[in-house]
Write a structure and sequence with these properties.
transmembrane, 2 helices, 58 residues, 64% helix, mainly alpha, elongated
């Protein structure tokens, strides 16, 4: 449970029903999801680097 205090009773009830992720780490996920996360982060980092290099070169 996190240290966040709900704004009112409605938000407290909604949080109890739906919840929200806290302290999510890639190391604790199952392998397929972990590999997808690593691929996703790497893809966007490489894409940003390629775009940045393309802008600098032109």
């Amino acid at each position: 449970m996190s240290n966040r205090k709900p704004i009112n009773d409605v938000m407290k009830h909604l949080n109890k029903l739906e919840g929200y992720p806290t302290n999510v780490e890639l190391k604790t996920l199952p392998k397929p999801l972990r590999y997808f996360g690593y691929f996703f982060i790497s893809f966007f980092a490489l894409a940003a680097l390629i775009i940045l290099m393309g802008v600098i070169i032109t």
